[in-house]
């Protein structure tokens, strides 16, 4: 029996009232296999024990956030995580309306009122997320990112793995980028917040009919860390003028702008590093291209 059929059997065994007319198997996820059922429901099956624990934390947080966050987010309707067995444990939720807010979609929008509205929606989402008191969060094992240690580790790994493929001028620029940031203690004096962790165009949904943000997905990278990191995702996808529009709703953006630009400046090489460390040639070539 194929894996997708085994997954479907576990879904039907747990929820026999669910009538399945069609399904699509998506296997490219790093931590989860995905079944799309009836073009309506998404079911995620963790591939590894660590992924199972991560999904448990994500589900707890999504249930906690549903009464706090105004934008639509996944609402867990199906839950078999108690199985605690890889291949059987899963969660499921209804697909949200809209399509990923790709950069090319964004660039086609020229109306100032629409751009302001989109910026306000995204800034309000992040403000609501980042302002949640950490002491109230339900997940006791939520990762706390040590920003200094993480940045130093990334820099060390990039130096060892990526630098041999880079031109000399690019190596100097990247070294300066990291070393200036690491040398400034103020960059690490922020109070950790709950951050989305992967706040980019593939996880922001857009309704072309309503010309508005219709939802946010993929909360698997949530953790406690720097609020600037989420805005770096926006900067990478939509550029500085758009992120500056967020300041009217989230004025602290202006105060940590330097951290935003630092993180944004690491994203391409992070992709290259991921490609090298995970034997993903496409990711490596995409990330390293500007540095050769």
TrEMBL record:
Domain Aminoglycoside phosphotransferase: 24-250
PANTHER family: AMINOGLYCOSIDE PHOSPHOTRANSFERASE DOMAIN-CONTAINING PROTEIN (PTHR21310:SF15), AMINOGLYCOSIDE PHOSPHOTRANSFERASE-RELATED-RELATED (PTHR21310)
Protein name: 6'-aminoglycoside N-acetyltransferase
Native source species: Dictyobacter formicarum
Lineage: Bacteria, Bacillati, Chloroflexota, Ktedonobacteria, Ktedonobacterales
